[in-house]
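seq as requested:
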Amino acid sequence: MAVPKGRVSKSKRDKRKAQSWKIATPSLVKCSKCGELMVPHQVCKACGAYNKKTIIKVD
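struct tokens:
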């Protein structure tokens, strides 16, 4: 015989949902051109290079 689901209290529900927003800090790598720390697979903000090629002109 089917039984109705038990009620989940607000505190129990919110404790479970509070874990889902946590994210890890982004990893950083050295730029291959200038050596500055940058997010991997992104254009370097310091020199504008990606994969040792200048993509953006930075003053």
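The mean pLDDT is 88.
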